[in-house]
Amino acid sequence: MDASPSNTTKRLTLLALPCVPLVQPGDDLAGLIRSALDASGETLQAGDVLVLAQKIVSKAQNRYIRLASVTPSDRAMELAEQVGKDPRLVELVLRESNSVLRYSRDVLIVEHKLGFVMANAGIDMSNVAQDGDGIVLLLPENPDAYCESLRQALASGIGGALGVIINDSHGRAWRNGTVGVAIGSAGIPALDDRRGDPDLFGRALMVTEVAHADEIAAAASLLMGQAAEGTPVVLVRGLHHAKRAGKASDLIRPRHKDLFR
Amino acid sequence: MDASPSNTTKRLTLLALPCVPLVQPGDDLAGLIRSALDASGETLQAGDVLVLAQKIVSKAQNRYIRLASVTPSDRAMELAEQVGKDPRLVELVLRESNSVLRYSRDVLIVEHKLGFVMANAGIDMSNVAQDGDGIVLLLPENPDAYCESLRQALASGIGGALGVIINDSHGRAWRNGTVGVAIGSAGIPALDDRRGDPDLFGRALMVTEVAHADEIAAAASLLMGQAAEGTPVVLVRGLHHAKRAGKASDLIRPRHKDLFR
After folding, report:
1. Torsion angle in degrees (nearest 10) through CA of B49, B52, B53, B56
2. Which of A8, A21, A176 sits opposite B5 (nearest CB)?
3. Contact B218 A179 (CB under 8 A)
4. Looking at the partner chain, which of A175, A198, A252 has a beta carbon nearest the beta carbon of B227?
5. What's the rounded Cα separation, in Å, for the pair B235 and B186?
6. In 3-state terms, what secondary structure has residue B76?
7. Across the interface, which of B177, B218, B252 has its CB nearest the CB of A219?
8. Contact A172 B172 (CB under 8 A)
9. Inter-chain contact A191–B174, Cβ cutoff 8 Å?
10. Strands laid side by side in the A117-119 sheet
11. What is the rounded CA–CA span in Å between residue B54 and residue B167?
12. Which of A182, B8, B114, B202 has a C-alpha 20 to 30 A away from that of B261?
């Protein structure tokens, strides 16, 4: 039995990029990120991962909806009554979702069209400018593809792998509080299959698939905060990931394999 | 409407302490951590958080069980047949749990006596030395209290708050893969209640409780890995947390408020 603890220092650094301006619809996020990197004196290195807050991607994609423009269906009216939410918001939640999983007073858990199980289809009103009537912000469209295009735009010149993640804060079953999770991912294995890797004692691990992109998303969330921090882009340096890249959609458990729906 | 993006650099550093020896039953983890800090040339600073892998706490507490010493009950025999696991392991899972929530072939989800919903009551055989018959390792006893005693042992002399977390890798509903979560916590707010904080536009956030200790646990997990990395202690530096401290048990959603049990 021969197990060797590590004697080398492993270090992970997360840097919240300063000087990222408030994002406007149509903004080129690759350009904004390049400028923010320049302003902070950082250059991208092979192996880096950029984590973007969902909100700035939604804003760049102009995923704003004015509530006054929404006419709630009968179903939305009825559900809104039961959960105690604005019927127009509930209408948008229904339009954005495949199905409603659970609801109770103040709680509406759905399967979003992207496959993610989450509250209110990820629609929220915080950090969204409002004047007069409410404006809400939907989740990004095609977040995995968006990450991939951003990765391609930013990876040129660094001569190695770059990861791009869009994170969002999700509630969970069983545990209080939200955590950052990946809703888009490119350039890294979102789900890291370590089955078969040797453990400290040389035996193969039996069942270990690690939600690698979710752990990165959670780590970045520590710097982004939820409130007024205004740091929506985090650079993560020092990660070691398997070469094989995947998507955040790999993190969605298929309905037929989920014992908790 | 006056929103100001950040102009200051925020940085978070995670350091996997080198030179942590394989932990033996009865080991003084505070002493081992002090030695590992010395070896790496690091001194604890106010605001630091130490994250310990669950396994080393279980080992220090001698939570080993030899499977040959376990006589499975009838119920364990029956359940073992249905899930396809060793009846003695299933017996231990039942002894460690309040209730069985779901099971199917290869899957056994329980509410652990500590309150955590998890697979196999957190019992595993990976990175546990075996000779002849199987030896398994149970979760630590009183992980919150263990963190608090470790915090007290290590905080003296740093003149400020120190956080201590025990992390473990848990599966989730709805999403594939495991993520690091906190099963013990002291010195920091495990659950960070930000309701009422202003958002970028000065409005109060409506529902934001952040599972702060879980996000730290996930971040540390990126450096610990699941397999042969042998780096069971991670020092996290640069976090900003509310002064109010809490426990990992704050992260457990009460059964009557959980729509997914």
Report:
1. 180
2. A21
3. yes
4. A198
5. 15
6. helix
7. B218
8. yes
9. no
10. A97-104, A107-112, A117-119
11. 6
12. A182
Which of A1, A11, A12 would best serve as a mutation to test chain B binding (most B beta carbons within 10 A)? A12
- Which residues from A are below 8 Å from B221, CB to CB? 210, 215
pLDDT at A172: 95
Report how far residue B93's alpha carbon sits from residue B86's, in angstroms, rounded to the nearest whole number. Answer: 11
Paired tokens of B158: 């740093």
- Inter-chain CB proximity A177 and B192 less than 8 Å: yes
Shortest Cα distance, chain B CAs vs residue A97, angstroms? 15
Chain A residues with beta carbon closer than 8 angstroms to that of B102 = 259-260
CA-nearest residue to A112 within chain B is B174
A64–chain B nearest CA distance, Å: 16
User: DSSP letter string over chain A?
Assistant: -------S-EEEEEEE-S-PPPP-TT--HHHHHHHHHHHTT----TT-EEEEEHHHHHHHTT-EEEGGG----HHHHHHHHHHTS-HHHHHHHHHTEEEEEEEETTEEEEEETTS-EEEGGG-B-TT---BSB-EEEPPPSSHHHHHHHHHHHHHTTS-S--EEEEEEEE--SSB-SBEEEEEEEESS-SSEE-TT-B-TTSPBPSS-EE-HHHHHHHHHHHHH-SSS----EEEEES----S----GGGGBPPGGG-TT-
Chain A nearest C-alpha distance from B208 (Å):
7
Rounded to two decimals, the pTM is: 0.93
Which of A18-27, B23-32, B53-62 has the weakest average pLDDT? Answer: A18-27
Residue A10: beta bridge partners? B16
Supply the angle between the helices A29-39 and A143-155 in degrees, to the nearest 10.
50
Mind listing the pLDDT tens digit of every residue in chain A (261 residues)? 333 445 455 899 999 998 888 999 999 999 999 999 999 899 999 999 999 999 999 999 999 999 889 999 999 999 999 999 999 999 999 999 999 999 999 899 999 999 999 999 999 776 555 554 688 999 999 999 999 999 999 998 787 789 999 999 999 999 999 999 999 999 999 999 877 666 666 665 555 799 999 999 999 999 997 555 689 999 999 998 777 889 999 999 999 889 988
d(CA A176, CA A199): 32
Q: Which domains does chain A have, with CATH numbers?
A: 13-63+140-254 (3.30.1330.100), 64-136 (3.90.1660.10)
